[in-house]
Amino acid sequence: MPAPQALSLASDEELIEEFRNGDRERAAAQFVRRYQRFVYSVAYRYLGRHEDAQDAAQEVFLRAFEHLHRFQQRSTLRTWLYRITVRVALSMLRQRRRLQWMPLSQAFPEEEEPVAQTLTPEQVHERQEFEQYFLRLLSTLPEKQRETFVLRYFEGLSYEEISQMLGTSIGGLKANYFLAVRKIAAALLNGPYAEEFRRRLPQHRSNGAERTDI
Amino acid sequence: MEQSERTYSRAELEQLLADYAFGQLPPEEAQRVERSLKLYPDLAAEAELLRHVFARLDELEPMRSLEQRSRNLSVHVLQRWQREGARQHWRWVRLLLPAAGLGLLLWLGLRPPHPEPPLHHLPPSEPVQQAELLPETLPFSEGLLTFAQWSAGIPPVARPPGTALPVTLPAASAADSLWQTLLLELEALNVEAAAP
To answer: In chain B, where do the E strands start and end?
Structure first.
């Protein structure tokens, strides 16, 4: 029996065409694999819980499959998915009203982490703690700054694409990005992990970091 | 001075500083920022600080678990999609069954209890004409008689009000009492009729 043919569609346009007129299941599988991390992380930033983010991400892809044949390509697939994800996440938030009454320490509760194979249990634990701290730190930023930072820094999107997603001018996004980066750096250098971050600074910077101009 | 040789203002540099520190600028723009930073040493120092802080942040991989947690998402999504796709095939059946049941109930509830006599035997104008000739209220036996006359094609006879019928209705105990009653009534009117 021949091995199943691997489908590698280079562009989103090819993927959409394959979904509409070709092998739908293969196109759908590639579509999800291409955007699953993106959709999941957006949902997680809004919902703050792994299970909720999973549910939301599944819902997003099912809605996308339902409407993909009508997708006009006026924006990129990623932008379109971002909008669906935000709508789904906000709808779930409205239904559950969970984060409204939660203190920030509970907005991103500690969850059981998938175990990384190459790390010792102590390292895994330390990273879990740092990740929880970092997510809480992100949640203290104003929403536009947080979204701009994550989409630019972690997702590597262009300002043009982020502008389409958030409906903010490119100048405004650059300002938001810089402000977010400044605040995060200041928090890391002055928070519970300050020692960790100062240790890596060049000597002449670490001495003056307390009175940092950030 | 060419556009590429012009240095950035402080406000412009601030907008580009993070991208410059993280290597997210195209080479030409990065060189221009570098030239401009010589005029603003505090911003140059800040760019260096940001580079180190975020390099350490990258090592700690604060988004790593998101990557791991979303890894199996495609499997769940595709399974759910297939399940829901299978359900779509039965969706019409699920919609039609209650509609059909409702239709059946309505038909049973609204249909007449007995079938109407076939109207095509009657001339279209006659029932109307006969109906117009009927008095407003009739005792049962008189109504029965009128009906019998109308059925036999006999023109109605004007009766003075209060006149008693020539026959008395028998006790309706026999199975053919209705027909017998009709015969008696017709006989009283000198109409010849035969039982079927």
So the answer is: none
